[in-house]
Predict the structure.
Amino acid sequence: MHPLARIPRDLFVCLAPPRCPGCDQRLSPSEPAGFCVVCAPLIEEARFGSACFEYGGPLAEAVRALKYLGRWRVAEYLGGLMVPRALRLYRGRVDAVVPIPLHRKRLRTRGYNQAELLARPVARMLRVPVRRGLLERVKAGRPQVGVGRSERALALRGAFAATESGWPPRVLILDDVRTTGATLDAATAAIKAAQPVTLHRLTLAVTVADDVS
Ligand SMILES: [Zn+2]
């Protein structure tokens, strides 16, 4: 038995009481990890097929905490929230989950790829592997928030490179937030150029701007 396994869970809770990823309030020990009772009802399911939730409110805060405040543990919970839609849409229909990769410089500074962490619970429940290394981000930088559809597409042209072989026939590409879809489009183009793969998409959240076209 690992020595830490003998430490009661309550002690961990005392040392690092779980906080709501939406408002950072401490959760009471009786509350399950995740959004608090105030934040939870504010999470809106997306009408969009391949995105799970509308981006905004507590969910946006949770994504910011995950990406910019080093709260990587939030990903297990957020990824878990993606599971029902993932199962509904893709159970038995994909052979692997490929998270949208970060550029290696960004990965070094952040320490983890949030899309990969989100992909883990999804892949586990779909009973397929998370495959990384098939797709690489070769161009650093993300388009600025607020730039238009065509600028984003332009900024992301050639952003990804896919390996020439080793792709399973049906792949679910997964990302955290979808804005115009330019990131997923650029990844799709790179993969399709490498191998004829059936691609599906899933994102945690979609920004409202995406509905305006
Ligand atoms: Zn909260």
